[in-house]
Every structure is written in structure tokens, then in C-alpha cells.
Amino acid sequence: MSRQRDIETIMKSEYITIGELVRITNMRYSTLKYYTEEGILPFEQEDNGLTRRYKRIESISRINDIKELKGQGLCIDEISKYYKAKDITEP
To answer: Which residue among 14, 17, 44, 78 has its CA within the 20 to 30 Å range from the CA of 55?
Structure first.
């Protein structure tokens, strides 16, 4: 028996796992993990040992933004600086 949630359930959920994010964005797990480690894909985690939870709508939007910025020729370091500056200036 599979423990995976179906796409319909995932698309109704406020929070999803990185594996579910992989399934709905067709991005590689390693890429999303890298974005997370670089601080450009935010997540929530209640305790250190628990699964990282990603806000579905915000995460999909962020991934699309990152794809667009990369398409404009920005590297991950530049994208990271862009989001850090943006986070400082937004209320």
C-alpha cells in the first residue's frame, strides 16, 4: 500500500513535502533541496527531526520565479541575493 498522497489531495493542501513538490513541479529532488539549502525556497519545520513542510502556493510561485530569473541569466548566488534584499524591503 502506497503512503503517497494523490495529486488531488496534494493540490488542496496548504503544506506539502519536498517529494510532493517534486511531483507537482517536475523539478528534481536534488534541485529543490539545493534551493532550500541556499535559502531561496522557504520551508517550515516544527522540530529538527521532523519533515520540512513547504507552503504549496508560495513554493510553486517561488519555483516559477526562480526558473524565470535563471532564464534571464542569473546564477543561484545572484538569485539568493535578490531574495534576501527583497525580504528586507518587504513588510
So the answer is: 78
Over residues 5-30, the pLDDT tens digits come to 999 999 999 999 999 999 999 999 99
86: closest CA among 60, 55, 62?
Answer: 62
Residue 73: count other Cβ atoms within 10 Å of its Cβ.
Answer: 7
Predicted local confidence at residue 47, as pLDDT: 82
Query: What grid cell was written down for 15?
Result: 503544506
Distances (CA, A) of 71 to 30, 34, 64: 19, 18, 10
Beta bridge partners of 54: 16
Q: Are residues 60 and 25 in contact, defined by beta-carbon separation less than 8 angstroms? A: yes
Single out the residue of 83, 45, 78, 89 nearest to residue 62, CA to CA. Answer: 83
Cell 534576501 belongs to 84
Question: Using CA atoms, how far apart are residues 3 and 67, in angstroms rounded to an integer?
Answer: 30
Domains of the chain, CATH where assigned? 7-89 (1.10.1660.10)
